[in-house]
Amino acid sequence: MDQPLITVIVPVYNILDCLERCVASVCAQTWENLEIILVDDGSTDGTGELCDRLAGRDARIRVFHKPNGGSSSARNLGIDMANGAYLGFVDSDDFIEPQMYETMAREALEGGYRIVQVSRDEIGEDGKRRPDVCVPPEEPVFQSSGGFLRTLLLHEGDCSFCTKLIDAELFRHRRFPEGELNEDFYLLLQLLTEADGVRILPQQLYHVYYRMGSNTRKKDPDEFSRVFTDIVKNADYAQKLTKERFPQYEREAARFGLCQRLDYLLHIPVAQMNRENAFYREVIRYCRRSVRETATNPYLTKQQKLYLLLLTAAPRSVRRLHRLTMRLRGK
């Protein structure tokens, strides 16, 4: 079987301690026809120089240096520069098994799939494996675009681009939204409107290195990441898309919109829960308009329903109580 070129894009920023392991795992792929693009997003700790040294060891590596603009802008530059028939993405603190891209590429070529996904696990800073975020299927399965969207709406699917091999044509007119977090989810929904679905493989070939310093993991429980506002915006987009393209899943989409707002309300600092915060006020209004949906939605748990109903009545008091509970639990 001929090996079409696969472009692997690695956005890089101040990751000196992990980058070499990451790149070595990509270079060691059994699918040898690779183009490896390292995009240095304005690193200040010597990571950019390490990228150049790594390129000197393997002719398949191309390095691009750019001013800092965030992971999405780095990925987008990689897409612009890519020559591969398929694209893959690896985060610079993670690492992959040698057969990952060959496994996905053969599946894509033999089955005609435009998006193929492997499973992943998480490795903590202590080197120990963490509980699975997404439970792998027992055997390979194909999910239609609507079916895959449904798993995302129920928080059962994997929206990460790092576990996927994707037909480069799907990116012809699409890029990651810049200046936002939760960007994988937004772009993946767009790809699902053109692809027939996703082929999901059970092998856990992608290893996420779980670092507390990443964008969505903070040590300070009072620190409020912008990701919690972005997930609400993406929930609105998901509900709109579902209504237009997959109306049979509107209840799942309603559940998703409520859960993302619940996540927002359980993380926002009490000091920001005020009349001057227009985004917060709209979240509360949405929850109050959705009391009937909250009470009757079959996909919400009893605990989720209780929290949502209490938050609509006394948001600041419930948030204080939740913060105290989390501190007592050491979270």
TrEMBL record:
Which GO MF terms are attached to this record? glycosyltransferase activity
Q: Which UniProt keywords apply?
A: Glycosyltransferase, Transferase
Glycosyltransferase 2-like domain residues are 7-169
What InterPro entries does the record tag this protein with? Glyco_trans_2-like, Nucleotide-diphossugar_trans
- Write the protein's name: Glycosyltransferase
